[in-house]
Known about the structure:
The protein is an alpha/beta fold and 324 residues long.
Amino acid sequence: MPLRAPVDGIRRLVDWLTPSFYIDLGRPCNSACLYCAVPPHEDAQGFTPMTEVPDIIAAGQQVGCDRAILIGGEPTIHPHLGDVLAMLRDAGLPNDHIVMTNGLRLAKAGFADALVAAGVGTYHVSIDTADPAVYDDLSRSVGRHGVQALGFEAALRSGANVYVYTAVTALNAPGLPALAAWIAARAAAVGCPAPPWVLAVIKPIGDGLRHADRLLMAPEDAVAAVRAGLLAAQACGVPVGFRNIQACLAPDLVRFNVDYYLDDFSVDVRSGERVSYSHEEYWRKPSDACGRCGHEALCTGIYGEMAERYGRAAYVPIGRVGLR
Length: 324
């Protein structure tokens, strides 16, 4: 942990998520989010075949992971999700698994509880807004915000760990303070502590790039939006952090940067060595001066599209602000 004053709520989230490996169940999804980095319509392969899952589990175990993160698409609509959890259990990994979900399917009576009984320990619930109209716009659907709210409440009642993950775009940024209050109110209504909340500025890839003119924000605007959400969350008692904002843009907020708590990387299973992570092809250090920054070793850089749209002037070297 390189941070001088880490945030307890984020450290708790890290304990829920690590050490884990991904099981990608395929791109089919019951939503069509405008910012999706892996849009379902770009993949005709459908769900991941069940025959591939045992090898994925074995690879995860071989590199020392003790839980799986089930991702998609939308993993809760996989027709054999229960069988995947049974495979994990049979491999000696009976619990603590993470499901990354939009929460819609969790609204089905008993579904969230059944997954917990089958080994799910944490729900990552993607909730972008408290405004039904903004939800419709971002999800390219009509009238389902209330269903997502019911799914979120079911996750909170299930006894699993829960955290909220928000993709921050120009469309929902003004409503982040209202979403902080909404999260706190929903948790209070079911008698649960407010769950951790991660504000993730969107990645300009996939549909996020295709709709960049509507979704992207200049770096200073993204920082202002996240700062407003963070302050509102603190006022509501919601543990909060953010992703995809570089330390040089907000040195005073370094301790809330979730990217400094979690290391997401790929591994060559045969050698155990780290290998290039798939998203690294999109990242760039914006300046040669980055090598003089006290955060250079921790910072991934920025997405090339951001530099092309907004320039590089905002990214300047800083000292080891916030670091031990």
